[in-house]
Amino acid sequence: MAYLYLAPALLVFSLFLLWPLLHAVYLSFFEWDGLGVGTWVGLANYGDVLTDPDLRAPFWHALVLVGFFCLVPVTIGLVLASLMTRTAVRGAGFFRSVLFLPQVVALTVVAVAWRDIFAPQGPLNDVLRAVGLDSFARGWLGDASWVLVAIGVVGVWVGTGLCMVLFLAGLSNVGREVYEAARIDGAGFWRELVSISVPSLRGEIAVAVTLTMVAALRTFDLVYVMTGGGPGRASTVPSYEVYQRAMEKGQVGTGVTVALLLTAVILLATVLVNRLAEEKE
Amino acid sequence: MTGRLERSLTYVVLVAAAAFALYPLGLILATAVQPDAIGAAGGIDLGNFATAWREGRFGTYLRSSVIVTACVVVLATLLSSLAGYAFGTMRFRGSTVLFYLLLLGLMVPSEAIVVPLYYDLRGLDLDNTYVSLIFPQVAQSLAFGTFWMRAYFRSSSREVVEAARLDGAGHLRVFWSVLLPMGRPAVLTMMVLFFMWTWNEFLLPLVMITDEGLRTAPLGLAFFKGQYTSGTSLLAAGAVLVALPVVVFYLFAQRHFIRGMVEGSVKG
Q1: Rounded distance between C-alpha atoms, residue B192 and residue B260, angstroms
Q2: CATH code for the domain of B220
Q3: Cβ contacts (< 8 Å) between A241 and chain B: which residues?
Q4: Is there a domain that residue A140 lies in?
Q5: Which of B:42-101 have CB within 8 Å of A?
Q6: Is B25 within the bounds of a domain?
Q7: What's the DSSP call for residue A204?
Q8: Could you say which residues from 216 to 245 on chain B have a Cβ atom under 8 Å away from some Cβ of chain A?
């Protein structure tokens, strides 16, 4: 009886998710251009990803992005949520809605907006020139040493509201009397943040870290629209490499292998973060 | 009570954060209503939207997005509710294994499956169709949906179910006429998330679709730049058109967006 209710979901799930996943594993053992007949190469594709600097670089770039997409928004989100919990803010609902807004806008649109901001004649450089920092003005997305930072800033913009909202929900479960007791003991903002907010938000922090970290590791839309992986290969990331190799360069085996290793990294990181959070509880 | 200094500081920080969040969106909106022609008088020009809609073909792109999103939301909601009902209210062999299998779908990123999926569907002559956009997204959505609905059905009141059964209602009746209507808030939240995810999806259509007439809105936007290098306002107008449906929806149903993201991920 139960199987009748499950059948449609399981059918779609198996055909369009499980099967392609298995097929991906199969393809990763071949060198194939997507058209002709593939050549069996065993684990050579995996070896390539681990040893070829061109294939390792995207993973390092993703790691840099994790710092921006994850650590910065979690930190800012904690501060904002604590501030809003300490002081009864007027218009709290308004601030919450506005800060969460970046989460719902399509990343392609986000990319178009920020591409303009970072443009050589864009608003960011206008501001820098206006305050006399002319030497700092540059084409941010065309500068190999700044391009990842620029994409990272967009990640901060996208993720901060999500973290704040998660933490606000968590802090609303902490009893007011806990804070009041701390106040009476003369605890200031930082003391409260470190001794009450952070410990009671352990679960929410784990969730926020997981969500933003996975988003960072999977970055694709932003890179595709803003930089195309450039300048040179300075901003290429794993997902972008998957697309380029498998769909544009006729290296299906390599592309799929990168995708599978990315999946493994995401699974490992997710498990690790949640283990750490549970252990400390 | 917090001190006056801290109160003021709190507002300063919040206003700064809100300005940071709004600026890029405001910028694109302002660009979109700027007259495009050089030397044109300042002021607001809504003509860019009409031009983007017709000549920029955003009308076509948005139509594709509406079709795909509507199909995904309806199908994924139906399948997730049915599966969630089975997991939440029935005991059967293999339920744990099957449930973990579905959970795997929550963890696997679409990057891992999109390439083999393309070659599978191309082999069946199904690439470049709405089918190639709809079913993979239904599969990904229902992993979350089943999980979400299972939690709802588990928490639903036993007494209600038993009362209905005593009145002679079968499983399907309990599901369709009792529990599903009662769970409207949970179902709506799930549908809102499906809507947002599907509307904003970019990688899947990028891989599957080469026919311009089938491009979804985000895909059309990404390719728009190449064709009209001079039309910054047109591009911005297109971007506004792509973002608008979800943003407007967010303004009216933000409770569902926020609740879904918070509860959905905390339970996960």
Answers
A1: 8
A2: 1.10.3720.10
A3: none
A4: yes
A5: 75, 78-80, 82-83, 85-87, 90-92, 95, 98, 101
A6: no
A7: H
A8: 217-219, 221-222, 225, 232, 235-236, 239-240, 242-243
CATH of the domain at A184: 1.10.3720.10
ipTM of predicted assembly, 2 dp: 0.91
Distance (Å, whole) CA A39 – CA A29? 9
Residues 35-74 of A with CB under 8 A from B: none
| pLDDT at position B125 over 80 | yes
Residue B12 in any domain: the answer is: no
Q: Which domain holds residue A58?
A: 38-280
B266 pLDDT higher than 90: no
| B109 φψ region: left (φ > 0), alpha (ψ -120 to 50), beta (else) | beta
CB B216 within 8 A of CB B201: yes
Task: Indicate whether B14 belongs to any domain.
Answer: no
Provide the number of structural domains found in chain B.
Answer: 1
What tens digit of pLDDT does each residue of B29-64 get? 998 888 765 555 566 777 888 888 888 889 999 999
Residue A19: how many other CB atoms lie within 10 Å: 16
What pLDDT, in 10s, does the model give residues A46-55? 998 889 988 9
Q: What per-residue confidence (pLDDT) applies to A192?
A: 82
- Residue A173's pLDDT is 82
Nearest to A101 among B10, B109, B250 (CB): B250
Which residue from A minimizes the CA distance to B81?
A5
